[in-house]
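Record minuted for completeness.

…
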Amino acid sequence: MLIKTEAIVIRTSDYGESNKVLTVYTKDFGKLGMMARGAKKTKSRLSSVSQLFTHAHFLIQKGSGLGSLSQGEIINTFRGIKQDIIKTAYAAYMVELLDKVTDEHKPSPALFEFLSLSLTYLEEDIDPDVLKAIFEMKMLRLAGIGPQVDRCVLCGRKEGDFSFSISEGGFLCGQCRFSDERAVALSSQTARLLNLFYHIDLSRLGNVSVKKETKEMIAQILTTYIDEYSGIRLKSKRFLDQIQAFE
């Protein structure tokens, strides 16, 4: 059976001397795996369309096993990402995280659009740390392990000064703060941004200016939270950390 769908390449691996195995996230069918025969050959018609991050229309031969890529028509190569090692590091982290938290054959057009827009914004120089935080929040929600960031996780209080508790899974108000001695005190801006990043419609992001120390605090909180609740270990995260260390 031949299917045609819009998709973004989120993982590639070599198979034999000339083939590639691709994982793509499609608009119509969710995550799919397929063989791209001959894609490692420079002159192959599948060479360019089988590159990581490539957004294209794919024609796929589906059977009982791994599908086979018949042809592709490129929509966007995200060249601006691929030519920038820092943007590449952020994009690689995003697509690997999405790959880890999604199952095959579970369609979500909204998630596809979110991925496409995230890469588009990254290429257009929207703050990568902001995009990364929003992406992480979306993936945590998708995995069913999102933190409570709009009220105290214990008493439900919605106003006041908050701390973030990894062990309790979200915000603690001033009265409940002492239930976790390791809870991290948050500035009002940091608490507001965590809530914003969790709930925002990415298409309405606009220009967001965040202080470096605030971004670092949010990154530390989300990294620790992901490590604690997801059990996910990403090769791309190590690469991203190394890149950021030299910025």
